[in-house]
Design a protein that fits this description.
With about 500 residues, this protein is an alpha+beta fold. About 35% of the residues lie in helices and about 25% in strands. The strands form six sheets. The protein has an eight-stranded antiparallel sheet with strand order 13-12-9-10-11-14-21-19, sandwiched between helices. Helix 4 runs antiparallel to helix 5 and helix 12 runs antiparallel to helix 13. About 45% of the residues are buried. Bound molecules: ligand MV4. Ligand MV4 binds next to strand 8, strand 12 and strand 13.
Amino acid sequence: MFNKLLVANRGEIAVRVLRACEERGLRTVAVYSDADRTALHVRYADEAYRIGPSPARESYLNIPAIIAAARQSGAEAIHPGYGFLAENEEFAQAVQDAKLTWVGPPPVAIRAMGDKVAARRTMLAAGVPVVPGTERGLSDAEALASAEELGYPIVVKASAGGGGKGMRVVTQPADLPRSLTASRREAASAFGDDTIYLEKLIGRARHVEIQILADTHGNCIHLGERECSIQRRHQKLIEEAPSVAVTPEVRAEMGAIAVRAAQAVGYVNAGTVEFLLDHDGRFYFLEMNTRLQVEHPVTEMVTGVDIVKEQVAIAYGRRLRWRQKDIRVSGHAIECRISAEDPYNDFLPETGRITNLSEPTGPGVRVESGIYAGWEISLFYDPLLAKLVVWGETRAEAILRMRRALEEYRISGLHTTIPFHQQVMDSTRFQGGQFDTGFLDGQDGFRMSAAPNRDLIQAAAIAAALAQHERDQQAVIFAAPRDDQNVRGSPWKESGRPGLRRIR
Ligand code: MV4
């Protein structure tokens, strides 16, 4: 089948996939742009190939260059990670046409779910509950009529979109024409397709998604849900598993429906079915993501299933190693996305060199990182630096552990989202599980406390460095005692004792 795999991605997810391959005994190939010549994923792989200049369009989205790198390296399979070309059916097809194994879903399944209007129809026919809305693309006049039928507030969505791109909430008829124009323009420029459809707004709902795995032998299982309501401008910041709002009954029902959704499009490999869960416990299909997701580790932590290794096994033609009854959700996992953005300055992206790095470790802590001390962050790609994931027996233990791990995390050289995560972990609303998709973007939602005085922090850092320097000077005495010092016993036991005589 295949012995060598190329990862068509960068950053933490490229490293994550390379690690899974390493454990399966596969040879690994990385690809990189000019900006990533010395990136962590390049260091990690057995071999690495340049695929183009820094802009993603010319490198990580350059299909011929990636296929050529596979050819040149002798790689027999390609894993796309997430983002970039992961949900591009033409890429999946190009990989297969080049007689390489695609570690992902069949191109037809990518297409079936990529067209959101068609996906809604398919789901409806399969008996999957979808948000009330329109079953086809609409002209502006049709949209006005459909909106009256559905009743306001409604949401205008782009059929080629997903992830909230081109989405507009409309609360009254007078605002609809402007929203239609804006949504179409955004969709046309982002996807080259201005087809729009309407949905009824499901207000103050939770964003809950189900991880599924399907093999090539007709087996499909789900690995429970992830709670992803803590988002900012449709970017998830914190995810957890399980969701405090999902009972065992809802989990079983939502899971079975997610499996049905996957089977309706002939799905194979790992995928995620997104739902909105309202305050009354009703849930609605939103869309299916036909790729590995950023937040997959929280599911891995509570089920013990290595999703990436399983993706490779599925692509290899293996049968799933579990039946649904073998899957048990145990304990609680939380993920914080650590990115190069300043949470005190409207999450403005940061650039610069990582001058110092100290990652948390210890019981129940997992760091999925794409950085190292000395690495330089550019504006070419997504600002995600690393994911901090913790597991605890209970949600309370996981939160306390996340606080501890965030405290241990030291990233110098640029601002990161660590302070944001610390404040969320300390918020009573998060601790009480009382949040929905309005937690950050809503009017009465969570707010960052005032920014600390950076001059004071800098002064404290200099003072701490001086104090440490003093201690280091003292330790030198014991590391290399002179004969006339007459130090008895182990010098190490003495280090740090006050009132020591200085030699230098
Ligand atoms: C919705 C919705 C409410 N009602 N659709 C956003 C991302 C994409 N996957 C779908 N999204 C939503 N679709 C209907 N009919 C709420 C969301 C939504 C959301 C909306 C505002 C602010 C944050 C949000 C987070 C997740 C989902």
